């Protein structure tokens, strides 16, 4: 009987020990220790979007994560956003007599029109609840504070300085590497153009004329298209080889508009009459470019309004098309 009691005591002890070990294991599991093999590990907590400080022409702006609801308030900002693979939710047009640049019109379906560059509709902008607004100092420095109350606003430099703006906006959009690639690819195309032009590249003079609704202009070195002409190694007529954006011209200045090739832009929905009288003037027929049949109508959308890498490459396309031998 004593042996039986000892045996029974051992059985109870073993049962107690087993229960104690199980309870200890469960306690460890509850405290973050070892888990049973069939217990799935909880998913890691999602990280909050990082907040970045973006430096721009008017200071610094805090931008959270990767913005997706983008509003653009000039054509250059629109070009750059699309070039970086981002479709804006809202955009302005150049002016009441204009529209979105032709080369972008197949991409604008679903984009809310926000008025014109000169008069963006702040109420409509606010209703879109953007997480980033892109503009530049020339257009909207005076309303920067109002825009910043709607959403984080990043401001580029003057719109014709598209390379600087590309770097600023790419940083704001979290696309700095993509921006660098766009610029590198563009620079390679410039070198290719120079190589195809050969020795004539530095002596070929390019004149750029633009028809505005009430006057005519020549575009100079600091303009968007003028800067591309200079980067491509081409020369300019003396009247256009200046560190300025443009100058208004009269019929008396027609001789100063000559070059080995003349590129003509027409601003607005229809060709205006501001250049018609130039073409009828006898001085026009005497220009070397006119005599040589080297006057080319080009799209104002990318030569005049584009102000970004997509437009810059289209200008290069025209230079290849009209100036290099086939």
Describe the structure in your own words.
The protein is of the alpha/beta class. The protein folds into 2 domains: 51-181, Rossmann fold; 197-323, Rossmann fold, CATH 3.40.50. Helix content is 40%, strand content 17%. The chain has 13 helices and 12 strands. The protein has helices spanning 2-30, 75-83, 122-127, 137-140, 144-150, 162-172, 176-197, 224-231, 276-280, 282-285, 288-291, 300-305, 309-323, and strands at residues 51-56, 59-64, 70-72, 90-93, 112-116, 132-136, 153-156, 206-211, 216-219, 246-249, 261-266, 295-297. The strands form 3 sheets. The protein has a 5-stranded parallel beta sheet with strand order 5-4-3-6-7. The longest helix has 29 residues, at 2-30. The termini are far apart. The model is unreliable at 1-41 (pLDDT under 50).
